[in-house]
User: What shape does this take?
Amino acid sequence: MNWLNDSISLFTLIGIGAVIVITVFVVGKYVRQMKTDSSTGELAKEKWDGIGEYKNELPIGWALSFFGTIIYALWYFLAGYPLAAYSQIGEYNQEVNAHSDRFESKWSNADEATLQDMGKGIYFVQCASCHGVVGDGMDGKAQNLTFWGSEEYIVKTIEIGAKGSGYPLGEMPAGLLDPQSAKAVAAYLVEKIAKTGKSKNPTLVSEGEALWATCAGCHSEDGTGMFGMSANLSNYGKSEFIVEVLNRGKKGMIGNMPAFNDGRLTDIQKLAVGKYVTTLVE
Amino acid sequence: MQSSNVINYDYTIAKYFAIATIVFGIIGMSVGVLIAFQMAFPELNNLAGEYGTFGRLRPLHTDAVAFGFTLSGIWATWYYVGQRVLKVSLAESPFLMFMAKLHFWLYIVGVAAVVVSLLMGITTSKEYAEFEWPIDIAIVLVWVIWGIGLFGLIGIRREKTLYISIWYYIAAFLGVAMLYLFNNMEVPTYFVAGMGKWYHSVSMYAGSNDAMVQWWYGHNAVAFVFTVPIIAMIYYFLPKESGQPVFSYKLSLLSFWGLMFVYLWAGGHHLLYSTVPDWVQTMGSLFSIILILPSWGSAINMLLTMKGEWGQIKENPLIKFYVLASTFYMLSTIEGPIQAIKSVNALAHFTDWIPGHVHDGTLGWVGFMIIGALFHMAPRMYKREIYSKKLIEIQFWIQTTGIVFYFTSMWIAGITQGMMWRATDQYGNLAYSFIDTVTVLHPYYTLRAVGGALYLLGVFMWAYNMYKTMTASKAIEFEPQNASPMAA
Amino acid sequence: MFHWLEKNPFFFAVGVFLVIAYAGIVTVLPDFMESARPLKGTKPYTVLQLAGRHVYIKDSCNACHSQMIRPFKSETDRYGKYSMSGEYAYDRPFLWGSKRTGPDLMRVGNYRTTNWHEIHMYKPSSMVPGSIMPSYKHMFTNTADIETAYAEAYTVKSVFNVPYDEEDMPKLGTWEEAQKTAIAEAQLIVDDMKDPQVKEAFARGEIKEIVAIIAYLNSLQ
Ligand code: HEM
Ligand code: HEM
Ligand SMILES: [Ca+2]
Ligand SMILES: [Ca+2]
Ligand SMILES: [Cu+2]
Assistant: This one.
């Protein structure tokens, strides 16, 4: 891990070490005195319920330390970090900007495998709480990502319709085609529109092409979605499509998927998690 | 064996409060053990419907131990120590006696109201100041009555010079009075709107201001409940039980005034990196560092009082309690300042390390002092030997083990948690989801709960030993000057 | 000189009081006005959200959850933008918390949704395996106290000039109006929920605690 490169973590470990060492050392010193020394001094004249009191001097180490900490505090406040010389938000901005520059320059041209690997980490932190660690959607609590994006899933979408990402065209109605035709359109979509690979039903592709007109009305001939009026299917099943989902959120049939546009994920990170999610499809 | 018998001290109220201390200690710490187990085994949240969930019980724990166990302990010792070091008996003034009784019974009513209201979820959410305004009023009343009793007794004292313990009781009285009033400025909504729950109120302060007032209060609640009156105790019970004069008047004096001056500035350390102004945070952090010395001053003064007295430590289990209490006081008052360093707090804040710090203070220092103090008082109040010395010895070691389990597990848990929240993978992205940082803590939560259970076991042993001392132990004729008489 | 004090309890007490009192004045007061100013766009809670906030307080969610995102990259990556003072201007009391047994919730409305909360609050471990958060089944049967929420909103409006009913601000109006607004707001949440009992109760005109607390959690952004 990077724990020891993190100055805060390092500082904390030193801190707790200091707690133990200083306490043991100082208490140890007095315990030795209990064992070996004996008490002396001039007694005050009062006794309170029999309790006496010596007029001993201050322990010198204690007095010096007390004085020292006061000097230190004065120095800190007057010279070290005088009023208004420090801003925690300023410090934060520096930290974040430095990190962003490094991150951009290092990963903006990252290859597919790197992005997928990066995306995996992001997925576990940001997505797994709804979609589950394996992406199965946890018994229908969120989208099953091992199914979403597949050809079969397109068939299902045509059956149940789609809604919730706030496209100007609104909802996609359910049951636009019968199951057999849907299968054909799905084959066409995968192979010719999204071009994500060979269809599982290659023989149906041309039949699907003939039926595509049903969809083109909203998604356009080439599937690009009529300039943002509806979902861009030329990206269907790809990371770009997922990035779009992350930007828009989705209040669909299953439930609500929040949008990730509050700045917690950068574009590279969104792309990366998209890449990872596409690997989940079986 | 002569002087103290001249005046016939009246321990009625001290006895009342001693019993309250034991009862509230058992209640508060049983709840503590339960919530500790809940964090390891969350099914335990379902034992009593909505009334048994962690959220409802946690404030019950903190308030029962702080305002039940600790306050009762403070007052039990006040009504004992106060008379003795001022050389005046409560029985000499029927008025003060009446006030003391009123003090006790009103307080009991207040605590009962607190317990019921917290279980019902009636709370204002502010830590250590959860109570709604009707209870606030009761608390203010209790406090004023105590104040009258406190200054009344001082007023009729025979010993002209106030003993160190009295300084600290006065400070505790004044500190809490000031803090509590300002932190509880709230507007009852029923009286403005004419509808809704009659006991509901809304804070006078909002947001960052509310936070600032709350932690000015919260930090100093620690100061004036868990520290100042406990120092009052150790300055009496350790020298008294051991027969050794206090090591240094100068050290007592500087520690006292140093503590008074420095403590109040340090509250900002609860708000580091929050939205309160940077300079307030810096003050909080700096004064915390300075605070080590006045805190250690008292502890060192006590340890030096025991110079050359190793034999007593080995022989007398009460001295063991007091000496270990000073040591835990030193531990938590260096740990706190280190946690108040900004770079450390960046990690430590919000983690289990904070409850770790809290409990080496409360279990090791507050708990041990109160237990030890009541053991010293019992033979003198009930005129009987302590029932079993052996039982105290066993109790001491069981509880010490419990504390060690508690703070070591929370140190590890807290630092692990803090590091995992910050950890990044090789790309610079967060390495762990939140739940990862929860599940790793299971073993430590379990260990802490076991430690807490051991401590609670010790509390039961204490209660039993005290009960037997009150009722069945061998009677003594003369009050011993020093070391408490104990059956083997 | 100090011996003199120790013999004069009155002056001793005055001395102690002076020494402990002025730290508060110096550290707490100077920024009081400054910190009370709301950020542009920060709005007071609606009555339903306020009722939810009361549920949050009643069950001491703040015992485990903070609402304070500190300016560290590790926190802003996890929870969103760091907190700003003005965002809390209508928070009475503040709910920053002091322990994160669970995650920060300052902006949980940005990344959790109604139905997520519904499942999670009913049984957290079914949504997040390994969760140690208690389940809050009683919120599905307890009815939210809209009346007290209204009383509080009315109080802060009249006593602290919280800008209800002003332009671009939540409407409060009379108790009758406020009830209607709360029901309309609850409707949107109940629509997104699945629990049949909550829905039935709502049809009868009862707003359950779970609906109110979800309204509150969704408002945290
Ligand atoms: C020199 C003395 C001390 C200093 C400077 C100090 C400092 C601190 C700090 C920095 C925190 C953590 C704040 C956070 O990050 O949340 C804290 C918490 C706490 N300390 Fe101390 N501490 C001191 C002594 C003690 C003692 C002796 C006790 C009790 C016997 C105690 C009880 C507490 C409690 C109860 C909390 C928890 C407050 C909360 O609810 O968040 N402290 N202290
Ligand atoms: C049997 C012994 C005890 C056990 C098992 C126990 C357990 C606990 C637990 C589990 C918590 C909650 C921590 C969290 O939220 O993470 C807690 C908090 C707390 N306990 Fe105890 N406790 C015990 C005794 C005491 C005593 C004797 C005192 C005081 C005299 C005390 C004072 C506190 C305080 C002030 C807090 C709040 C800490 C904070 O907010 O940071 N406890 N305790
Ligand atoms: Ca109150
Ligand atoms: Ca706390
Ligand atoms: Cu503090």
